[in-house]
Amino acid sequence: MRIGELARRAGTTTRALRFYESQGLLTAPRAANGYREYGEEHVRLVGEILTLQAVGLSLDDTRPFVGCLRAGHETGDSCADSIEVYERKLAEVDALLTQLGEVRSGLVAKLASALARRPLPCVVPGSAPPPNEQESR
């Protein structure tokens, strides 16, 4: 199949496929006329790349999965290198969640402190006061 059909079947663009090729993730033999010739294995490979990116992996993170499929394994995560990518990415996500939890706790404390002081509306000097309900009618 040609690149346009591969793009359509995989749910991506020819531009993305050419980029994957430039990054060494996608390779295909060329016919006598110079066109790339893709097979079913390429549909599966591109699908794997897109699925992994959808769950948060970078294009570079997909390399072990692509290599695993190219080696003939049933799935891209049948190899130890792929499992290491999952573990590393999960550790990164856990660290971010911890950091976000700390940020949230700080914001909750600041809000509670501010609300305890019963904040009043503020008027900035030199600006028009906000209209009240009677003036807007």
UniProtKB/TrEMBL annotation:
SMART domains assigned: HTH_MERR (SM00422)
Keyword Transcription regulation on entry: yes
GO molecular function, one term: DNA-binding transcription factor activity
Pfam families: MerR_1 (PF13411)
Transmembrane intervals: none
Domain HTH merR-type: 1-68
Keyword list, A-Z: DNA-binding, Transcription, Transcription regulation
InterPro entries referenced in this protein's UniProt entry, alphabetically: DNA-bd_dom_put_sf, MerR-type_HTH_dom, MerR_fam
Domain of life: Bacteria
Keyword match Ligase: no
PANTHER family reported in the protein's UniProt record: HEAVY METAL-DEPENDENT TRANSCRIPTIONAL REGULATOR HI_0293-RELATED, REDOX-CYCLING DRUG-SENSING TRANSCRIPTIONAL ACTIVATOR SOXR
Protein name: MerR family transcriptional regulator
